[in-house]
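Bit of a strange request maybe. I'm writing a small parser for structure token strings and I need a real example to test against, not something I typed by hand. Could someone generate the tokens for this chain?
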Amino acid sequence: MRFFKLVSERVRKLNHFSRIAIKLSFYIMICIYITAGFAFYIAPYMPSYLRAMTVYYGAMEVAPACLAAGICAALLCDIIYHSCKSNDNDSDKKDS
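Reply from user aminoacidic:
Good idea to test on real output. This should exercise your parser:
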């Protein structure tokens, strides 16, 4: 329980762009899962059952990877944002 509380506190401290990137990757993952479910549902009615199942299995493998890529991109953007922000603060102090 403490882990989830710590993660939620850290996510709130992310910059705005990083939070949007995580939300967007989550929504894309949901859309891919919906596509997989649709492909699985219509597979028996398709002329080629195996092609529809290939789409299903491919979507089921890609969806978590899409979320992981979005989280990595968001964390990378947050690191870059904070490093540029600290560099700007350091240069302001040197000018004074």
